[in-house]
């Protein structure tokens, strides 16, 4: 059973939904995340409502666990997770990221790759640890960077791959 964390548009969440994967709950750090409109069962855990990040993460883990989640997918979730969350789902938190990790981690991966002038980018799905987009890589696929690419055009090309790669890896993890 899958819990999903989102902060933004939720196109990767939509790909998981469309793949028919067993999503039981979706949590976000942002009440205004458009992703929340894509599912029925969602909750918001805004850092501003808690004294510490650990308290917020523990509350979010409690809720996902109560809803039946045993695997957690970060689908455009833009905050670091503490052990208060990660220890509740050992080796069962996965993330999708728009670069060929370990190259270009962080919040601005697409812009950073264009600024660096790389000729190749890609999408990575990996197990989450306490670092920034670090942890063992489960799957990776390359996409070309084309002349005239903008952050939007490159990100769109990468997302097309993400929408195929993420549901495939998550389905494999569910079948474990
Ligand atoms: C995706 O491209 C995902 O790889 C990226 O945010 C986007 C979310 O799009 N995640 C990260 O950068 C994590 N460091 P979405 O909300 O449309 O799925």
Quick synopsis:
The protein is of the alpha/beta class. The protein is built from five helices and seven strands.
Explain what you see:
The chain has a single domain, classed as Rossmann fold, CATH 3.40.50.170. Helix content is 33%, strand content 22%. It has 5 helices and 7 strands; from the N terminus they run βαββαβαβαββα. α1 packs parallel to α5. The site of glycinamide ribonucleotide has 15 residues, from α1, β5 and α5.
Total domain count = 1
Cα gyration radius (Å): 16 Å
Strand order of the largest sheet: 3-2-1-4-5-6-7
CATH class: Alpha Beta
SSE topology:
Layout: E1 2-6, H1 11-18, E2 23-28, E3 42-44, H2 53-66, E4 71-74, H3 83-86, E5 93-97, H4 109-116, E6 120-127, E7 137-144, H5 151-174
Helix pairs in contact: 1-5
This protein binds glycinamide ribonucleotide (GAR).
List keywords for this structure.
176 residues; alpha/beta; Rossmann fold; 7-stranded mixed sheet; 5 helices; 7 strands; 33% helix; 22% strand; globular; binds glycinamide ribonucleotide
